[in-house]
Amino acid sequence: MSSSVDTKKVLGTPLKINGVVIKNRIILGPMAVLRPTGEGRPSGQTIAFLTRRARGGVGLIIVGGSVCSDRGWNESPFTPLLRFDREDFVEDIKRLTDAVHECGTPLFAQLFPSFGRMGVPRNGVSILAASPKSVRLGSGGLPPNIYVPGGHISPLPEEADVAQIKALQDRVVEAAGRVKRAGFDGVEIGAHMCYFYSSFLSPLSNKRTDEYGGSAESRARILRDLVAAIREEVGPDYPIGLRMSVNDHMPGGQGPEGFAEVAAHIVPAGLDFISLSEGNYESMRDNVPSVSGTMLAHGEPQAFRRAVGKDVRLFLSSTPNPTQAATAINDGHVEASMLARQMLADPDYASKVLEGREHEIVWCDHANSCLRGLILNAPVTCHKNREMGQEDPSAQRPKPLQKIGVWAAGNRFVMGAIDVIAGIVQRNR
Ligand SMILES: Cc1cc2nc3c(=O)[nH]c(=O)nc-3n(C[C@H](O)[C@H](O)[C@H](O)COP(=O)(O)O)c2cc1C
Ligand code: SF4
Questions:
Q1: Which of 73, 93, 386, 429 has its CA 20 to 30 A from that of 7?
Q2: Domains in the chain: boundaries
């Protein structure tokens, strides 16, 4: 690691991502905190949240909390989400992209199936994944202040057949064309956590014996085909990225070298960047770490760099310490730092870092009350930043019962008592 680095200079250097130049290396990561309308259109709050962060100086915004297929809309565990699968929403989405562009900031759309092993079966339709393998949420892998009394085992998904894989590909490609027409400057395919595409990447969740399972090359096939099809749809200059898991962090799971090997098979199809994502729902403690720089300490960006070379932009996660992020860029491990919770706590983080006002940064405490709001489908708020969730003053506030739920879900005594009661109920069944 370099001994000293000019943080402001490194993080303030523009970055070219295919046909788009971003003005600095600090990226707002995708978060389902946008409070779109119940129909899935951007609301005043959606626009106010994003423009507030654009004015706070980030170089790029990746818009998450979205779905790009009907199935995603029906089966997502989280609501409400933005819909990128509806042609009649294009004008509304354009209002969002215009507003962010007026602040001088480009934005990419996350194309996220939002279903898969973490999907919720609705309307009598089974959930789908690479292979029938449930997600087990338990106390072991959970981050601080998140409790799941009694643990949770998701329903068993069905193995997706080739026709279903191709049909989803068509939906995602259509969504890519649609968001491009609606003014987005690039797209990021979501293949992380325990959703549909990520279930193909690791041998832990992919037990298939057909052309989509087995070797790293075969496990990469679904995304290689998808990237190639999106490339045809959007043209050569349009940035296409992939958000992918980099480490299962599970016994018997796949480590960074294995994931990086899969990535290396996808890149030639036309990938411009990879957003590195730690762990998944079963190892959520690693996905939302409590200290800065864990990804670098685990050697994950380094493994990806070795596997995919210098032409693919790598986005580091969960490294709010500006010196650590700048050093990682300076050392050539990654090209940019993508942040989520820190951007809830302080929308001006980027400006403060780039103007040498680090002492003014409001630091995220990693106590995860925002995540509890997400899990309970309540409006997400941040106790370090009262404005968060109310960037549009008319935005819906959490209802009193939702506030109590968010508090209780983070209280180990309340959750411990529920855990005991759940155990007694189960034993007496
Ligand atoms: C409230 C909340 C909502 C999130 N929603 C999304 C999402 O829609 N898509 C996504 O890829 N990641 C989502 N994430 C994960 C973050 O993008 C990020 O990977 C994670 O918080 C770790 O980064 P951090 O340490 O900078 O917070 C969400 C995280 C939070 C806290
Ligand atoms: S609620 Fe806590 S963990 Fe979430 S962004 Fe705010 S300070 Fe960070």
A1: 386
A2: 7-364
